[in-house]
Amino acid sequence: MPLSQENRIQMAISAYRSKKIQSKSRAAAVFGVPKTTFISQLNGIQPRSETRASGHKLTAVEEESLVKQLLNADKRGFSIRPEFLRGMAQILLHERTQDPTAVLGVNWASSFIKRRPELRTRYNRRITYQRAKQEDPKVLKQWFGTVHDAIKEHGIHEDDIWNFDETGFAMGLCTTSKVITAVERSERPRTVIQGNREWVTIIECVSSKGISIPPVVILKGKEHQAPWYQESNLPPNWKLTNSTNGWTTDEIGLKWLKQVFDPFSKPHSTGAKRLLILDGHSSHQTAEFDDFCKENAIICLCMPPHTSHLLQPLDVGVFGPLKRAYGKLVEGMMVAGNNHIDKEDFLYLYPPAREAVFLPRNICNGFAGAGLKPLDQDRVLEKITFQLRTPTPPLLVEGSISSAFETPQNPRQIDRKVQSLQRSLQKKRTLSSSPVSHIQHLEKAAQMAMNMNLLLQQEIKVLRAEGECKIKKKARKRASLGNDLFLSVQEGRGQIQQLDTQLNEQVDEPTAVPHQRASPRCSGCGTIGHTIQSCPSK
C-alpha cells in the first residue's frame, strides 16, 4: 500500500535530522515530496489541514469547553437547543474580551455544530419522567436475567415466546404528515379533523415466529349493536366486545385468555410450554388469570413498569406504524367528504390498516428490537442515550497513558500532572515528556476549568431565579374572589386589596387572661381550703 504524502514528509524530515541525507533538496527528491512543503514542515509550520482558521471568535479551549458541556447535558437528558448554545458562547466571549459589544453571528451555532464531528442536530422526542427513570441498565439487566432463567427453567423454545397488549384509538383523529403546497404559501398547512374522540381498545397478540392471532375489539357501549357485525371488512374469527368506557376489564382479559389466546396459539406451539410477555395492567394480574395459565402451561412474565417502549415487541415494532396507517386512512375518508367517523367506520378502516402492518418481518423485528429473539440485552441497552443522573466517571488505571499525555479532567489527574512536572524538572527527560508539554496541559486544564465555571455560574443563576419565582408563587394569597364570569386583572387586584383591608380592620383578639392555679383541695373530704390536719373526717 503506497504511503501518503504526509507520511513521506515525516520520513524525509526524520532522515534529514538524523544526518542520513545532508541536503534538503536531496531529501525531498528521494521521498518524492514537494520541496517547499518539506521545508515548511521542517521549520515547524503546520499543514493547512491541521491549522486552525484565524476567523474564529472563540479559542480552541473555549470551544472544547462548550462541546464538553453539550455532551454532558445530552447524557443527562437535557439536550441544549442551538439558540441556547449561542448564548453560552457569548458568555465565554464577553468574559475573555471584556467587550460588551462583541457578538457572535446569527448562524454561529449551526456553523459550530457542522465543524464539530462529535455533534449533530436532531429532532427530540418526548418521554415521560417515569419512563426516563426506568431507562436504567440495572433494571433492564435484571429483566433479561429473569427471562433467561424462565426459559432455562421451563425449557421454552425461542419460537414459543408471545407478547400481548392493549392499544387505544381515538376514532376521529389522524396523524400529521408531509404534504405538498404552493410555493408562495407562508403558513403551515392545516388538516381538518372531526371531533369524535371516542375511545376504542384493541387487544393484539404476536409470537416470536412472526405470527399474530385474531384481535379483540373493545367498543364503548352497554350492548352489542347489529351494525358492528355487518361490516364486510371484518374477518369472521375476530372478537368484538363492549365496555362502558371502551377500555378493557378483568373479565374481558380473562375471556381473551381462555377464548382467544389459548385456542389460537396452541397450534403454533413448538414445545410444551408458552412464554407470555405482558405488562402490569390489573386485568392481567387476577387470581383466575394466573390459575388458568398454570393449568395450561403458560408462563407469564410481567415487564418492569414504564419500560414497554423498550421491552415490549408490540410497542417496539408494530403499534407505532399501525396508528400511522390508521391515521392515513382516516385522513383519506375526510378528504373524500366524510366528516364523521363512527364505530362502523372504525371497523371498516382498522382491518386494512392492520393487514398492512402486521407482517411477519415487522413482528420479528419487534422481538429482535426488544432483545427477546435472539435473547440479547445489548440490543436494548444501546438505545439508552442518556441518564437522569450524571454518571460517576471511571477511575483511571495507575500509569495510564491519559494521565501523561492528555489534558487533566479532574483534581486527581491534575495532581498526577503536577507530580510529572516536578519529576521532569528534577530530571532531564525526552521531549515527549518535557516540562513544556506538562505546563501546556496544565494551562489548558485551567482554562477549561474557568470556562466550565462560567457556564455553571450562568446555570446556577437561572436555577436561583426559578427558585425565587417558586417562593413568590407559594407566598401568594389563596382566597376566593367570587363567581363573576369575567374579571380583569385590575378588578382582581382591587378585590385582593379589599380583602387585606377587611382583615386589618378586624377587632384584635382579646388578651388572654393569665392562668391562675386553683386553691388546694383536701384529699380526705374533697373540700377546697381544708388541709389534711383540719379536716373533720380525719
From TrEMBL:
Name of one Pfam family that matches: HTH_psq
Main location: nucleus
GO MF, one example: DNA binding
Subcellular location: Nucleus
Domain HTH CENPB-type positions: 50-122
Domain of life the protein comes from: Eukaryota
SUPFAM superfamilies according to UniProt: Homeodomain-like (SSF46689)
Name the record gives this protein: HTH CENPB-type domain-containing protein
